[in-house]
Design goal:
The protein is of the alpha/beta class. It folds into two domains: about 150 residues, Response regulator (Rossmann fold, 3-Layer(aba) Sandwich); about 260 residues, P-loop containing nucleotide triphosphate hydrolases (Rossmann fold). It is built from 16 helices and 14 strands. The strands form two sheets. The protein has a nine-stranded mixed beta sheet with strand order 8-9-7-10-6-11-12-13-14, with helices on both faces. The protein has a five-stranded parallel beta sheet with strand order 2-1-3-4-5, with helices on both faces. The longest helix has 17 residues. It is elongated. The two termini are about 45 Å apart.
Length: about 425
């Protein structure tokens, strides 16, 4: 048992916590053990909800009721975990006496987050000076906890990771890949961000066709040997379409069987995200452990549906799953595509939205001439007709996904944008 002074806590001096929104890009927390000691059930509940978040999925979290006193008692006879979170209502000398007692039983390297009820920057600074790693003011929300833990275990010298945007069709043939590729194009050309489009439909992927490219290798080679992938190999596997847009193409061959491993997908996407600000993930319409994990782990999700019963059912199932698996993230963006096919019975967009509990971010009318010509030419919609309503819509959606204000006006035609009020799940 180590006998530590207060300043023997592993010292870091992070900035005062910010209340960033759910769209903030944070690195997942590594496999650590976290023990929380709370005085109020509301605090314990918030920490428990944070522990269920995708960014803390690898951490092992245990919540106890009892505050600092219980923590000191427990660690008299047991080793301390990687991170201790303690709640206290004490102030002044009593507060620092409690923390001093905790320091006496802490092992070297243990990090400490204190949850207090006094919003005083001088108290915060004194805690940091004496070795506490972070101070949070109750009441807490799960994202504030996740942000604090992520900051403690993130490498401050590491480059920021790129935002990942996963695109999934509610069923086959909804045009999800077309939407994904056009959004990637708009982000790269209209926002001047470097973008990599990762095509994970290995046997039937269309990224190469849509951009008039023929990727010889691509993402399949990385997924079959993820341990070999580094920045140098990634650069060789990418196909550069413009100065700011590259595709990580699928082989689109049927002479190989592809059994993808969720951990391999996670490893490859982490390396891709380390290289650019934005990664578009084009998911195939299959349901497997790896597709579920990639979708749930993405920073943003876009579901593309058509106005029919199968799309409605599947969209409802996807939205319900996403709400449950990502309680602290924004809801997915819904794109209604191919609306207004002549003589085809359709579910009205308003009824579709009410049934799935999600307003569409974008409604695209049926336009086979424009989309068919773009596909056959290997062009994006904006390249072919930048003034079209579809191009305008893709620009609008790319701005919404990236959290920027739309600069287009709401059209008066059947083509429509739906502005969100609050998209928190």
């Amino acid at each position: 048992m180590s006998n530590l002074a207060m300043n023997d806590f592993e010292v870091e001096a992070p900035p005062m916590p910010s209340d960033e929104g759910p769209s903030a890009v944070m690195k997942p927390v590594p496999r650590i053990t976290i023990h929380a000691f709370c005085e109020h059930p509301e605090t314990g509940s918030a920490i428990q909800r944070a522990g269920e978040d995708r960014r803390l999925s690898k951490a092992h979290l245990t919540v106890h009721m009892g505050g600092v006193a219980l923590a000191v008692e427990q660690y008299q006879t047991s080793a301390t975990p990687n991170l201790i979170m303690v709640e206290t209502r004490a102030m002044g000398s009593e507060l620092f006496a409690q923390l001093g007692a905790l320091a006496e039983v802490c092992d070297a390297g243990t990090k400490v987050i204190v949850i207090g009820h006094l919003n005083d920057v001088s108290v915060y600074r004194e805690m940091i000076r004496q070795g506490v790693n972070e101070y949070l003011v109750a009441p807490l929300n799960p994202m504030l906890i996740i942000e604090a833990v992520s900051r403690l275990y993130g490498d401050p010298d590491a480059p920021p990771i790129g935002r990942s945007i996963a695109f999934m069709g509610a069923k086959g043939g909804t045009g999800s890949s077309t939407v994904a590729h056009n959004i990637g194009w708009c982000i790269s050309s209209g926002m001047n961000e470097d973008v990599i489009i990762t095509d994970l439909d290995l046997p039937f992927g269309t990224a190469g066709l849509d951009f008039n490219q023929d990727p010889a290798q691509g993402v399949a080679d990385a997924l079959t040997s993820p341990e070999r992938l580094d920045d140098v190999l990634l650069d060789r596997l990418l196909v550069k379409c413009t100065d700011r847009l590259s595709i990580f193409g699928a082989p689109a061959v049927l002479d190989r069987d592809f059994e993808l491993d969720p951990e391999a997908c996670e490893s490859v996407l982490e390396i891709v995200r380390a290289g650019v600000p934005c990664v578009i993930i084009d998911l195939p319409h299959i349901w497997a452990p790896w597709t579920r994990q990639v979708m749930v782990a993405a920073d943003e999700i876009v579901i593309t549906a058509t106005p029919d019963l199968a799309s409605l059912r599947n969209t409802k199932n996807l939205v319900d799953l996403i709400k449950q698996a990502r309680p602290n993230d924004r809801l997915p963006h819904l794109v209604m595509n191919q609306v207004g096919v002549p003589k085809r019975p359709e579910i009205p967009v308003k009824d579709f939205a009410e049934a799935v509990g999600l307003d569409p971010a974008l409604v695209l009318p049926f336009n086979p001439g424009l989309f068919g010509t773009a596909a056959n030419n290997g062009q994006m919609i904006e390249e072919l007709d930048a003034k079209s309503k579809a191009a305008e819509g893709f620009r609008f959606l790319s701005q919404q996904i990236c959290g920027r204000e739309a600069v287009v006006e709401k059209p008066k035609s059947s083509f429509s944008f739906f502005k969100k009020k609050s998209r928190k799940g």
